[in-house]
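Pipeline run #58 for the internal structure catalog. This entry was flagged by the ingest filter as a single-chain record with no existing model, so it goes straight to prediction. Upstream metadata was stripped on purpose; only the residue string is passed forward. Reviewer on rotation: M.T. Logging verbosity set to normal.
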Amino acid sequence: MQSPLMPKRIGPWLVAAALLMLSRAALADLMLYPTRVVFEKNQRAAQVELINQGKTPETYRINLINRRMSETGEFIAVETPGAGEQFADRLLRYSPRQVTIPPGGSQTVRILLRKPADLSAGEYRSHLQFDRLADASGSGSIEELDPTFGGSSIGVVLTALVGASIPIIVRHGDTRASVTLSDLALVGPGADSQTLAFQINRDGSRSVFGDLAVTFTPEGGAAIELAKAGGVAVYVPNPLRRARMPLQLPAGTALRAGTLRVSFRDRPEAGGKLLAEASLALP
């Protein structure tokens, strides 16, 4: 028989699942607007609004960090720029550095750009990181007394400290980019559950950013939207990003005798211009 003074054992899978659920919930409580900042031409100031949609006050520490994007869209923090990378952190100032936001409240973070006279033309990027801090009241302590055993047992409290980040991009001088889509291929276990794999190819001196959509047009029929994804980027200096989009097929629809088409467009607030398009003919 287990002593009430011994902690109950919790399987690693249960801890991981609980942390995942807590992380999603905590992240959903923080809303950021806008979700990216781009300094162009003579713009020297911008601001980001933080909104606490949760039911308790939340404190966030704010930092500028440098990140590198992989070919699959994953980010890693880096200190030293690689070939073709230019970071914006030395060009930016921001305030405040830490905020506590009440439930339903908001906080404005102001960003100032200072360009040195000898700044080389090109695109510079860093990320503004918002890290959620632990509750200083002690209610999130890893060890708390379990009232089930009259206050003599040790329980485990899982507190997810999560955050979010947004890219801050500085474009100086003449920067241009073009984008193409290629290498379309269907992958997946069967006709009822398939994924479209493809590449987003970027060329030039600036990043590309937009929305993806996949449609299927059967022979003699109308186009059907099967997938979409918003806010997809390929950052300088990456020449490509490998993408996969699961396809949601309407009941009774089979991917044959027709055309799959994937499009990449500017975001609606930027005009929604078609940037690139590619198709795959299905027998």
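catalog note: Residues 105 and 117 are 39 Å apart (CA to CA).
catalog note: The first strand starts at residue 30 and ends at 33.
status: ready for reviewer M.T.
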